Structures
1.
Amino acid sequence: MKKIHFAIFAFSLLVSFSTIAQKTEAPVVKKGHTNDNKFKQLKDEFATPNSQHTASGAPGAQYTQQQVDYTMDIVLDDANQKLFGQEAIVYHNNSADALEYLWVQLDQNKRAKDSKTPDIKGGGPELLYSPEKFAADFIDKPFDGGFHIEAVKDKSGKDLSYTINRTMMRINLAEPLASGKTFKFNIKWWYNINNHVPQRDRSGYEHFDEDGNNLYVIAQFFPRLCVYNNVEGWQNMQFWGRSEFALEFGNYVVNITTPKDHILNATGVLKNPKKVLTPTQLARYKEAQTTFDKPLLIVTQEEAEKAEKGNSTETKTWTFDAKNVRDFAFASSRKFIWDAMAVDINGKTVMAYSLYPKEGNPLWEQYSTKVVAHTLKEYSKYTFDYPYHKAISVHSKNQGMEYPQICWNYGRPRKDGSYSDKTRDAMIGVITHEVGHNFFPMIVNSDERQWTWMDEGLNSFIETLTELSFDKDFETGNLPKNIVPYMYGDQSNLSPIMTQGDNVHQFGPNAYTKPAAGLYMLRETIMGHELFDYAFRTYSQRWMFKHPTPEDFFRSMEDASAMDLDWFWRGWFYTTDFNDMGVKSVEEYRVTSTPTSEIKALAKSYGIPVAQIRPGIYLSKDSITEGEPKTPMDVVLLKKHIETNYENPSTVNIPKYFYEVTFEKLGGLVLPILVEYTYEDGTKDFKHYPAQIWSKNDDAVKKVIASDKAIVEIHIDPNLETADVDTSNNVWPRKEKSEFDLKKEALQN
Amino acid sequence: MKRIAFFLLTTLLLCMSFTLHKFYMSLTQVNFVKEQKSVQIIVRVFIDDLQEELNATSIKEPIELNTDREPDTIEARFKSYLKEHLSFQINDTQEEFDYIGKEYSDNMAVFYLEIPEIDTIQKLSIQNKLLNFSFSEQENIVKTKIYNKHKSTLFTPEKTYALINF
Ligand SMILES: [Zn+2]
């Protein structure tokens, strides 16, 4: 680039030139190539837009979405750890298509004796076996999990034909369900509830030996309809255990029968608090609805400790009514303490609740509900006002798992009640994250079976902003600098973010940290808060209660901001490239009127005598010769120009120092170059060269910097904003003392 | 993911919907500074992984790292753990490194080690078994910069040894 420019410029300055020597060369056959520019538009990668998912990234005029309503009677058999259910399903076919069958998800079958999930796990023997693990692997029969489907009947009670393919069940319809019609049917089922602790399952129970109680966190517990949408048809990829769920929205009425001394909460509005709470608890429950300043106990620790000593054989039934949710989950135990606080979301009251056993205290009474409240407020700023009436955080050992309006979170103090800052921060982090999932994917309902990053990545990103507003020094682990070790890792162990969840290497950094760090970079460094936030909010509001695809996100972010970000999506989401920039060299120039050796050489190559080069201004690094100008104003041509064209020539600021800085790019990503220039007087300038600086040269670019003060340091990305994997080449001049030398001195003192 | 069984209760399996970092790697930078006759080594590992590994490889009471309960004797533990699991042979001679110290930064423990009195390096062999006992997916990356030659070597529990010639 620079070379061509230089030549053209030089040409125009030449007074005359003799005929250019024509060289005749044998024609060279050069191979062409396709467009491999990093800024190439993503048209090949993106699905073609249509009237369902539009080119702007919004739902189109012909976008459709199914609705599924459930009425369920559930019985929790605490004595035998079994769950029984009867569900009446109303399936609304809002699509334009006739459906020959319906697909239902049987997630519990992942734990069935004939589950294929263990079969796809490769690997040699463990290094060391505990007796429990040895027995589990080689002696014990597998856990007898999975659904026992007792009946599948139509609304008139006639048996329906169905076929089970592992975690998926096809309901074979006698005649296709026409567009706009509904289909009503019933399923009766039960299953053995698993202990979730050993295998870290998403749902199940934890058993407390000390008091003999179980703490249940129950989810994926009923046969749920698969999504039928405009891009996948039926989303009936098997549930292998990792890639999570795709679900339709609908309305739920659920009755749950538990032992009489249990405390329970669930998705939806509790319809019969008078029946299930004591009068005292009911009074506190009501008082909490208007208590905004601090959590209020509805069930106290004293009451919970009393309850956990009992073992009632009587039952009670809790009734919940949930509108427009994509799923339903509940938690139940004698051990639960319950606290509550009202939260004001732009004038609307939302309840923040926590359920925890005494083992969670004192950590939980101090933090959980407050973190729920803070999370709802912060997420509402970046997306939309939280539309549900409550959000619950349930204490559950080693877990972090999300459902509509309710989630399970870890964070247990030591036995003596003390806890480290690390335990506290991990708990604040997980509660923020799981409550945040109410927004992604519970409301902005992306397909988790296909794209883990769409909910985990977006959620981890807003989680990061939320944690930093809770405590500006919070170690979120999701900043660009935190993803460096992963991005610098061995390529054979990396996958592009745009990979289906089951096939991803290093799931955590791939689907959580990298997208979060990328969006953080986009907001803080590339787009700025104003453009980013408007576009992100646009995406969130466009896809509230709908099923977005990755393209809907990418397109919305561009459509609402007027920023072409294809290069960013391509590099960060579609490849495993990393960023490594450096200051390759810095050369100093002075202003002169003496032709430089470069222009002389150019002139010579065209046979032009030096004397015929038209007078000009040069930036030169040749050694200074006799009689050359000392300052820019000594250059007659420049002086004349200034005196003729400027009103007040003496005040014109002419730079004295000129540098040619070569920035090199050793990584495959294109990103902005962020440069801090430090001058001799200690002042600094910060310069942001947009990523497009790399659009025609992917390896190195040069910039000429003019300044009236000498530059003493040039530092690329001084604030670690761009996940540069090697910062040792980021500073000019190279530090005399290495990081190691400096640390050694510090550590030895 | 496969992790060693004994610690199953405290380790993260990949069915979770939340992550603290969930990737198992360490990064070691080895620079030969000829003027100082010094091989300078910086090792970065995740603090919680290291805690788990130290507890896994010891029958003593479990310890906590980077909390108010971190034992006073921890530097000696670190030193002996590193000596056992990371070693360097230069020109066919086993070279002991000096343990200079560590700092905690962003969930990571950063160790500074140095092998002094090295005149030349023709051959460098590295044994790296960091965190292999607890994490079968552990990925240990060693980046060497010796005579302006950059090289990156991956170590896994299956491949704990590498030889680099100069
Ligand atoms: Zn999550």
Note: The radius of gyration of chain A is 33 Å.
2.
Amino acid sequence: MSDANEAANEPIAVIRTPISLDYHYSAGQSASRFLRAIAQGKLLGQKCPVDGRVYFPSRGACPQHGVTFGDEVVELSDKGTVVTFSIVRVPSENIPLELPYITINVLLDGADTILIHVLDAKLEDVRMGMRVQAVWKPKEEWTTSTANILYFRPIDEPDASYDSYKEHI
Amino acid sequence: MAELTAVVGIGQTKYQAKRLDVSMPGMIREAAERALADANCTWKDIDAVIIGKAPDLFEGVMMPELFLNDAIGGAYKPMLRVHTAGSVGGSTGIVAASMVQSGVHDRVLCVAYEKQSESNATWALSIALPFSLATVAGAGGYFAPLVRGYIRRSGAPEDTGIRVAVKDRQNALRNPLAHLHLEDISFDLVANSPMLWDPIRYLETCPSSDGACAMVMEKASLASKRSGKVAWIHATEMRSEPTMFSGRDQVMPRATLDNAAALYKKAGITNPRREIDCAEIYVPFSWFEPMWMEGMLISERNEGWKMTYEGATAIDGDFPVNMSGGVLSSNPIGASGLIRFAEAARQVRGLAEKHQVDGAKKALGHAYGGGSQYFSTWIVSSEKP
Ligand SMILES: [Zn+2]
């Protein structure tokens, strides 16, 4: 039997059938306002009419109370507190970051929800309660995208107390 | 009043990294036929089929239940697909049970599966949501910060997770179906394994497995006539909650606490630690053992780690957990919840072989999924309620 025949008789265990997906996502009013603001370097949150908590980024409605937010917006600082974190040493095909990297759940000053982002710091320095600030792209590159914020970095402020952020873990 | 229902047949495949010898339909049929054989049934004895699996994006097969219809004997019968993320196996068992409990069907087959070798779950779980940055590498990336939060609030010793991993991996050595059999498992082996998502080490995480699990359930008037051992379903309970809202306790979500309280109330249990003989809990990362001991109201708040430390959760402890080796030893994601439910049933039937807890009469099966936002649980017993 020839090699070609032998190859033909090999059982096929797995075949690859790649697909690609393009999404057309409608932002809606609330996210559109948020994205237009971030193109100006502003971070806009929204208040829940039930408990007054500030959601950032806001998707226009409260997941807990099932009510839509009004038109009132709250401008937030780009400084915040590391609520909790992880150091990631596992690659993923759709995350273009160099390993290892630090992911943080950060509570922006004035917000009552966490944002998951990346921290540029020495691995041994990161800790819960650490104060951080956003590092932005050069102004001329700003678009209607959260990618305007590249990452966070530590700032020279005393750590926040555990009690001030513990309910956001 | 709901019809009393029993598990009368259980079938599982051997869990392993790659089942290249079978297709998806072949793999689930293997589990289903074993469950039918255990129940002393044939395909024609089944009134309806319930199938569960995790997100379609894992294998990239959209609506797999359609092409699996014939393999699970669904042709010309009611067939229903269940999805509740990682907890789906548990929910599949609960939906199947409810089909009988409601009086709609007399005997139902349920099957849950995942073929991770044909999948890239970490990729599928790392897709960027619109307008946010993709930084969370897979489930471990999501849960590691929450584990850190648990350690901070409970003051648990840093090696608690290592102890859980050693215990579950030792239990797996008793279970021939488990994917991972680490003969040389030791504290040092786990402690020295690479840190993947700090504070979660490689040997504190679940593997990627291929496998399927199936169960046959039937109403009491049929099950009572059987000479073989059955597992009576005393109670089932499910809860969900949103992934993110302000002030959400992600470490100890309200949905788990509500779910546990409602489950025990239905089952007439007032002291779960004393009244339940053993539990199979969904622990994909070792720290979730102490977290769900608290989340299932078995331990006092912030003291779940003590159960691990005191050896209570060991197979010879006073509250054995994950006798089969758990999710840490086998993780065909969509099936993982149903495997937990099946192990609880095997224990009370007295058919758990080398991982049998002596005299187990009442057992808890548990699954969770999503961002700790889906919970599925049941209590089964060797005795009727
Ligand atoms: Zn609200």
Note: Residues A 48, 50-51, 62, 64-65 surround zinc ion (CB under 6 Å).
